[in-house]
Automatic annotation (TrEMBL):
Regions crossing the membrane: 60-78
Domain of life where this protein originates: Eukaryota
UniProt KW keywords: Membrane, Transmembrane, Transmembrane helix
Statement: the UniProt record of this protein carries the keyword Membrane: yes
The name this protein goes by in its record: F-box associated beta-propeller type 1 domain-containing protein
Ranges where the F-box associated beta-propeller type domain occurs: 65-226
Length: 348
């Protein structure tokens, strides 16, 4: 009987859906790197506040530009790289036109029950015939080559929000602008539109665009309070509706040198609080209604971090390839260092 049970468990553990579901509950691991690039990456496995960092600096400065459905988007040595750390498969994509990190969107979809595909989208800005307007365009790569979408959208000029990553939600990429409006682009249909919204937030509040299971979300944080908004009626009469108010305990109760709202995955709002002694990532669990320490940052960490809430995926991804063990370039070694840092915590 025990032999049968063990055999059944071995069969279950090899099932991709089971593994992805098992490791995605109940929270996320943390992956972060310096905003200006670094040759050292830091990782906190779910439930472990200790920082693990890559073994030795990589040969190249790396940027982590995005995360989606178990895949990470890295920029290294003039190239994009899409990588799945738990399967250790990756793909390099040349793109010589990278100007700002905020222009890059990363999308991952399931095309059937067992296969994923990815797309990278770069939003471009150009002057329109009307001096007060901007024309947005889109470059797309689905793993083979770059193409320029025929889709263009022209609207009153406003900068994309500084240091704000685009969000992928329900088959669309969303860029928040300084005027509160949102540019959205569907990589599959290549349709784009401007979503008119108004930001009702206090002056000086720190903002973060995110998403939960059903809505785009906006986090607006002051030293005293954190406000969580959901975007309702997104295609008809879009409005930000206040859904939660949270006392910002990590910031409000401590004298800090700096603090940041780092991430939101639909359940945990992450706040980084740094004083003269400690550099800590706190998470507020919206279901448990409580703060907890999610990660302790080592002293060598930069003030600014690109931080992602990481959940693994074992699904095959179209276009990703195995490592070439016979010959590895410097950029491949740099990617391998990041993948190995994460891979070691998800061996089954």
């Amino acid at each position: 009987m025990m032999r049968c049970t063990t055999k059944s468990m071995e069969s279950i553990s090899k099932d991709l859906s089971f593994k992805s579901l098992y490791w995605s509950q109940p929270g996320s691991s943390l992956l972060h790197i310096g905003v200006h690039g670094s040759n050292l990456t830091c990782f906190h496995p779910v439930g472990d506040v200790r920082p693990f960092h890559s073994k030795g600096p990589s040969k190249n400065i790396c940027f982590i530009l995005g995360y989606c459905s178990g895949l990470i988007l890295i920029f290294v040595h003039g190239c994009f790289c899409v990588a799945n750390p738990v399967t250790k498969k990756f793909r390099f994509l040349d793109y010589p036109m990278l100007q700002t990190k905020k222009s890059i969107g990363f999308a991952v979809d399931k095309i059937d029950e067992s296969t994923q595909r990815f797309k990278i989208v770069c939003i471009t800005e150009a002057a329109a015939s009307n001096p007060s307007e901007t024309m947005y365009g889109f470059h797309i790569n689905a793993g083979n080559s770059w193409k320029i979408s025929k889709t263009k959208i022209t609207c009153i000029s406003s900068d994309l929000m500084r240091d704000m990553k685009p969000v992928y939600f329900q088959e669309g990429l969303y860029w928040l602008r300084s005027d509160g409006n949102i540019i959205t682009f569907n990589p599959k249909t290549e349709k784009a539109r401007l979503i008119p919204t108004k930001l009702n937030h206090q002056a000086g509040a720190k903002l973060l665009l995110g998403a939960d299971d059903n809505h785009l979300t906006l986090i607006s944080a002051t030293e005293e309070m954190i406000y969580v908004y959901s975007l309702e009626n997104i295609f008809t009469d879009p409005k930000w509706i206040l859904t939660r108010q949270i006392k910002n305990e990590p910031v409000h109760e401590i004298m800090l040198s700096c603090w940041y709202v780092e991430a939101f995955d639909g359940r945990h709002v992450l706040v980084r609080a740094k004083d003269e002694i400690e550099d800590v990532i706190y998470g507020y669990d919206l279901k448990a209604n409580m703060w907890e320490v999610m990660g302790l940052l080592p002293g060598w960490c930069d003030a600014g971090r690109d931080l992602y809430q990481f959940k693994p995926s074992w699904y095959p991804v179209i276009g990703l390839q195995n490592q070439n063990n016979s010959f590895r370039s410097e950029r491949e070694v740099s990617i391998e260092v990041i993948m190995e840092l994460i891979h070691g915590h998800f061996r089954t």
